[in-house]
Design goal:
Length: 118
């Protein structure tokens, strides 16, 4: 299983960006699927995740500004980020728990950099 990310880049404060991630390979059910981020010198933290049934979790710092969406049929998750702030600057990682047979394995994308300038 590979998590292939796209999107990210540089934007000024108040701007918007969209991240997308597709799970490729021989896969079973994915639950949940979402995004984490890691800023320099800080631990990796949850940004948002979405369960197969539609339930979502958000980091309190992004609620109301970021929206996560899933396409279960295409094994895809997207993160629309608006009202970006300099403190949102980080490497963003796609994350998923994937069921393969009787195993549940954890996967990470390679990371995509989001830079927000003031």
């Amino acid at each position: 299983v590979q998590l292939v990310e796209s999107g990210g880049g540089s934007v000024q404060a108040g701007g918007s960006l969209r991240l997308s991630c597709v799970a490729a390979g021989t896969i079973g059910p994915i639950n949940p699927m979402g995004w984490y981020r890691q800023a320099p010198g800080k631990p990796r933290e949850l940004v948002a995740r979405a369960a197969t049934g539609g339930a979502t979790d958000y980091n309190a710092s992004v609620k109301g500004r970021f929206t996560i969406s899933r396409d279960n049929a295409d094994n895809k998750v997207s993160l629309h980020m608006s009202g970006l702030k300099p403190e949102d600057t980080a490497v963003y990682y796609c994350h998923a728990f994937v069921v393969t047979g009787e195993e549940v394995n954890e996967y990470w994308g390679q990371g995509t950099l989001v830079t927000v300038s003031s």
